[in-house]
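Run log, item B.
One chain of 132 residues. Sequence copied directly from the ordering sheet:
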Amino acid sequence: MTTIPEKFADLFTKEKKAFAFLALVKKDGTPQVTPLWFDYDGTHIIINTARGRVKDKILKRHPRVALAIQDPANAYRYIQIRGKVVDETEVGGYDQICAVAEKYRGKREYPKNPGEVRVTYKIQPEKMNTMG
């Protein structure tokens, strides 16, 4: 298990509101990068998407990921993480997106689209590089 360096632990707090940039590889070999909200449980980076979206399709097929998390106050300070998806669940998916909405928007409300199923992915960090 890889541990987040103490010097960069603030990027994972609710107060910092740093975005993660998720890098995936599509079926045709082209890259896909998405800025997204994330949470951290002390071990895993937790992301959320809707079932059937591009992220969901790629993560189901290829669970290896790369993330860059940049300090919103200093663009030259960031952490890069490579890891793998170790858990995926629809259980509590909508509640989890509401929790991160509270972190990033200050309100627990998140639009609930008819028929949309939220899915949560837990990513286990394996390798890290830092800058700043």
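Observations after the first pass:
- The mean pLDDT is 96.
- Residues 98 and 110 are 5 Å apart (CA to CA).
Flagged for discussion on Thursday.
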